[in-house]
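BACKBONE GEOMETRY TOKENS:
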Amino acid sequence: MSVELNHTIIHSRDKRASAEFLADILGLRVGDEWGPFIPVETGNGVTLDFATGDPDKIVPQHYAFLVSEEEFDAGYEKIKQWGVRHFADPYMKRPDEINHNDGGRGVYFLDPSGHAMEMITRPYGSGS
């Protein structure tokens, strides 16, 4: 058996708000609450298990999602409509822009707990 990522826990200020936010942007489904977790499963079977944690102890992390051009369009439209802070770069120096790295498109945006989420249409290193 090859090694595959199965799930990861994302500590959040409000697990429901964070799970629903990301699921809505990416066009995914929020699963049924299980114990302290609210899962959001990605297309490759990896589950993001959102858990409410102490807001003072949440360390912002980065999560990147490879999406189709159509999924990018839909997600980016929601980001703009909802007024979500977003950037073309991980240093947050190019606000309200997207990037065109590797011949695709990408955008960084912050979730309700301050995690840096990213949508890309091409894997890094895959293109021009």
